[in-house]
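TL;DR need structure tokens for one chain.
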Amino acid sequence: MNTVHFLVKPLLDLFERLRVVTMPEMKAALGTRADVTVFRKLSTLPYRSSYSERGRFYTLDSIAHFDTHGLWFCREACFSQQGTLLDTAEAFVQAAPAGYFTHELASQLHVPVKDALRQLVQRDRLHRQLCGDLYLYTAPERTRRQAQLALRHSQAQADEAAPEPLRAAIVLFYSLLDEQQRRLYAGLESLKQGHGGDRQMAQRLGLDADTVARGRQELLTGAIERQRVRRSGGGRPRAEKKRPNS
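>> reply
TL;DR here they are.
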């Protein structure tokens, strides 16, 4: 038998029997009181810790059977292919077509996620946007974030009977708009909302209220740059090329 496998055989037998184990159980199997001894043995195996219960459960990659979302639940423990709760929450929000409210993500991951989401926002790994009375967590990248907010908005406004292809088409349409077109779209929707529309659309689409107001005014006055995304003179100044000294 391979020497390494011989040294960790008690652990392998324990994992095979229980599938998911705790540190005290591994200590008992190895006949030690030291955590460091257990981790020394574990380092030779493809193991992972749970993202639930503060990582107190352990399993082997060969034992875990992850679902289509990359999750596996066993013996009251939650495991993810992403690893930690922070990495898992970030990956789920980034991939979500319409972002996640806290309670939605908690239901999906089967653990409280409020603190994890707060940390991710503080580290600029996620964006938090007030949507109605709740905070919606979305991707930090602006284009992706606006697409997620647009779909969430369309879901909230659309009739329950509206077909899924229609909602998908709305998101696709918004994602293809350039900067000016998105501003004008937000301004148009603000006009439909009436009083307070600028603030509502700013929250839903991840824009500044001033940007929405500008789009609304451009529509009302017809002062629209038809050939440009930005007004003339906008953006970074052109870099002046330097000629080498002769």
